[in-house]
Design brief:
2 helices; single chain; 103 residues; 3-stranded parallel sheet
């Protein structure tokens, strides 16, 4: 029997993105402002209050800016919300973000 041979092309090409160096995680959330972002799809109205309550027990000085302040991060207003997000986070003195809870 004749052996079958195949040509193989390596699929790896040039990277189409630049790696980002992320800031380190916040070690202590006391006194920090955490901003919530939601796509209004995954029970955020149920989950965010639970997350807030749980984090307040561990970090009594934590502050939150609720997801309703920012608008829907997915949907008909997504482009505008995302466009203004950096300024909004800065205006609220955001130290960290919780996004995409529920499921």
């Amino acid at each position: 029997m004749a052996e079958t041979g195949y040509q193989v092309v390596w699929p790896s090409g040039k990277l189409a993105y630049h790696e980002l160096i992320l800031k380190p995680r916040i070690a202590d959330l006391n006194g920090k402002t955490i901003c919530e972002l939601s796509d209004y799809s995954f029970r955020g109205e149920e989950i965010f209050p639970i997350v807030r309550e749980t984090l307040r027990k561990q970090y009594p000085g934590i502050k939150f800016v609720e997801y309703t302040e920012f608008g829907n991060t997915h949907g008909s207003t997504e482009a505008e919300v995302i466009k203004t997000l950096p300024e909004m986070l800065k205006a609220h003195d955001c130290d960290g973000v919780i996004s995409g809870v529920g499921g």
